[in-house]
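Forwarding the complex inputs:
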Amino acid sequence: MSVDDPGRPNEPAVLDPAKIRWATEVSAQWWRNSHKMAPSPCVFTDATGRFSAPGLPNKVLYLGANPVACFWESGLGRDLNSRMPDDLNIAQSDLESRLEYGVQLNPTGLKIFNATDSAARRSIGARTSGCFSADHKVARNWSKALMDAGADGLLYESTRQSPGLCLALFETPATQNALGPIRKIGSAYEDAPLLASLLAENVAIIGS
Amino acid sequence: MSKELTIDPDFDKQAVFQLLAKFNLSAGDVAEVFTSYLTLHPPTDRDLGSFRDALKKRGTQAQIEVLKAAGPLLTSEEIREKLGMASRQTIHNHKKTKSLLSISFPNRKGDYFPAFQVDGHEVRAWIPQLLQRIGHGWSALSFLTAKRRDLKGASYLDEVLKDPESISMMLAAADSYVS
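Prediction (whole assembly, two chains):
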């Protein structure tokens, strides 16, 4: 007889927007890590990621509460995460080509789901926080279910140990209006706390 | 164990290093100590040089591993001959237009070209496609040769050389890399 594991990430059913417990407190200050060749630092993407993929109803803009969390959730950080732990190297040019931006967001009126809040997860039938982290295919299904239910984004913890909340902002008319000024800070290679985090995570710089 | 710090003129650093060595802490233990220390003493811009040096020092070995995984490197002259091109200038132009993957070393003259990109007398079709996404040689090489969890320790390079059908998977990952 098969036993249902309550800790295992489950798949979403169709969500009732009226029953979803939306986040009441969402920060207005965010960070963005973007490739210098990107047409704009705040481009919503459908590149395959934790909550985005071609064919999903909305494109996604990934933001972080601080530059370190932001880096680990960027394409470069996600690539490092996909590697074996003894093979974490990064070219200096990659760090130089990643630019950090401060992003202002007016969260008033946005329907943001907080995946780190267990009561919120219960409101949509997600049994575990792993629904939003363990298997990206499952996470994308939850992302789609929330998009279909009219969400403007979702808050989640970075899978890396780096402290900080992340925000996957869905591309909707409301989120486009909510995005405020963007301020360029510098490159990832000029960010001492980020380099400290790379050192702690056993990353090496090559090709310098 | 490296003893470089033992000749560091800074006595405090020397003492900490000796202490860590005396307790024979594992790299994981030291990483834990380091992470906790960072919360007490957040890094500042003054630490940038030290962090870069430490990351690059670690990179020396990592770079050797990348090159090992990439296989033989060809000089400009060798790849020119293999591809039957008229001059080394043509090679240079191909490099400039991101049609050839090349890397360079600070202590060596000229560019070097991983041999895997040549199939017979032609450059594999996916090389320019990759370089349009990840244009820098070392970045592309690191991306290609890294051992991946979801490929059970294989690399994208292993996969695309084994099965051309995995090229689209590799290119999708390259799109994600620069996102």
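The first helix of chain A runs from residue 67 to 73.
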